[in-house]
Design brief:
With 263 residues, the protein is of the alpha/beta class. The chain is built from seven helices and 15 strands.
Length: 263
């Protein structure tokens, strides 16, 4: 499957480097470069004329920023997906607002670019010939965020909300668990619950679980519950999670809520 790509960066050397990287990964990521642009107007014209599947977009540009440009793309009838390519990690959270498919930090490694494009190709294969940055990139709440931002080894990863099985508070971080691996984020469970309460349910004081990931409950033999009970061994219920062998305890306070979900 060949992806149609548009490169948008106000610096010619950066565009040239991107074309070199794309050439290096052409075997594993078939693509066609349908155009390049150095500014907002050129980019908008190219999107209208060439209908790219993906725009590889810089953030800092004169006139209109990449974030503003991506917001303009979202208003078009068939918006392209956006992969940001930037030297600045501080704009990753704002990328949520324009539903970016990924966020790559310069200097971009070929393997990281290939990973982003392969993900885009997989989405295109399962969701149709056009990847809509506004509504098809990932599942999420209406008008809310579509990804969690994870800073890891000098790069920023966007983890789709729809891939998260649970979030668990541990010391100063929150562990975010998907089917394939764990990530660490610096957000509070309370703020996540306030924003994404339609998607996640609190099973105890330190854990939120995706409602769609709960496949049942079973009796457990140990619960550590700081909600009015002394920490002690006791019989309790645990959540059975889709695609994971791990179980999470359910607190007494949250048991009625979780029980209602599995009736």
């Amino acid at each position: 499957m060949t992806l149609r790509l548009l490169i948008v960066d106000d610096e010619a050397p950066a565009r040239a480097r991107m074309k070199t990287l794309l050439s290096d990964i052409a075997g594993e990521c078939p693509h066609q470069i349908v155009g390049e642009a150095a500014g907002a107007q050129q980019a908008q014209d190219a999107v209208a004329l060439a209908a790219p599947d993906i725009v590889l977009l810089d953030v800092q540009m004169p006139g209109m920023t990449g974030l503003e440009l991506a917001a303009c793309f979202m208003k078009t009838p068939s918006p392209p997906a956006v992969i940001f390519v930037t030297a600045y990690d501080e704009y990753a959270l704002k990328a949520f607002e324009v539903h970016a498919l990924d966020y790559l930090l310069k200097p971009v490694r070929a393997s990281r670019l290939a990973e982003a494009l392969q993900r885009a190709a997989a989405l295109r294969a399962t969701q149709g010939p056009a990847i809509s940055a506004a509504s098809k990139a990932v599942q999420g709440t209406q008008g809310g965020r579509r990804n969690f931002s994870v800073q890891e080894r000098g790069r920023v990863l966007l983890v789709p909300v729809g891939e998260v099985i649970y979030l668990k508070a541990e010391l100063k971080y929150v562990t975010l668990r998907t089917r394939s691996r764990e990530y660490l984020i610096e957000e509070s469970l309370t703020s996540i619950e306030d924003e994404l309460g339609e998607l996640f349910v609190r099973v105890h004081r330190k854990a939120l679980v995706a409602r769609g990931a709960i496949v049942g409950v079973e009796r457990g033999t140990l619960a550590v519950d700081g909600e009015g009970d002394a920490d002690r061994a006791q019989e309790s219920w645990q959540v059975i999670l889709r695609d994971l062998d791990e179980r999470l305890p359910i607190s007494r306070r949250q048991w009625p809520v979780v029980k209602a979900l599995v009736k």
